[in-house]
Write a structure and sequence with these properties.
about 190 residues; Rossmann fold; two-stranded antiparallel sheet; MGD_biosynthesis_adapter; alpha/beta; 8 strands; 6 helices; P-loop_NTPase; about 30% helix; 6-stranded parallel β-sheet; globular
């Protein structure tokens, strides 16, 4: 399943309220049902511009961070939650997942301008073109609520086809067709 560089990466991009999270959840569920070990990565673009509110202000880890810790962890025998206040982007986030988890698939939601291949979740062709105009890169497939195949320059699926999308993505990953020559990029900006 995994290539020499790590787990299969399934990127998901789109505008707010397009259905990205629901589709990501469906992909995670489908992959897990197939026996694959799955990680989910969510880019919180809102926290890029403003202080995040991921922790309660009085939590022990928040107090340690205010005291100077750049990495904090809440842990139990059941698992852990790792928090880093170090700057980074998709390559660093994926490296962190690889360092702490042995997974087959990473479903990464957000980061429309990141270089990795991704699925655009859009309401229709107009949203797809707006996404490209907003600088989206690496679009290899589309999940559209309103428009079907033939309206997009890449393979198109409906939201209820998560199983088909996962099969297509895994096959494309294995044979290398998710390389940049098989993806659509928007305007550079």
């Amino acid at each position: 399943m995994r290539d020499g560089e790590g787990p299969v990466l399934i990127g998901i991009a789109g505008f707010s309220n397009a259905g990205k999270t629901l589709f990501a959840e469906a992909l995670v569920r489908e992959a897990a049902e197939r026996g694959l070990r799955v990680a989910y990565l969510k880019h919180d673009g809102h926290a890029d511009e403003a202080p995040d509110d991921w922790e309660k202000p009085d939590a022990d880890t928040a107090r340690a961070a205010r005291a100077g810790a750049t990495v904090t962890m809440v842990a139990s025998r059941q698992g852990f939650l790792l928090r880093s206040r170090q700057a980074g982007d998709f390559p660093q986030w994926l490296a962190a997942i690889r360092a702490v988890a042995d997974v087959d698939v990473v479903v990464a939601e957000g980061g429309k301008r990141a270089a990795h291949a991704k699925i655009a979740v859009v309401r229709g062709a107009a949203d797809f073109h707006r996404l490209l105009e907003a600088g989206a890169r690496g679009i290899a497939a589309v999940v559209s609520h309103d428009d079907g195949p033939g309206r997009f320059p890449v393979p198109a699926f409906r939201p209820e086809q998560a199983a088909d999308v996962l099969t297509w993505w895994l096959d494309a990953w294995r044979v290398g067709t998710l390389a940049s020559g098989h993806r659509v990029d928007g305007a550079k900006g």
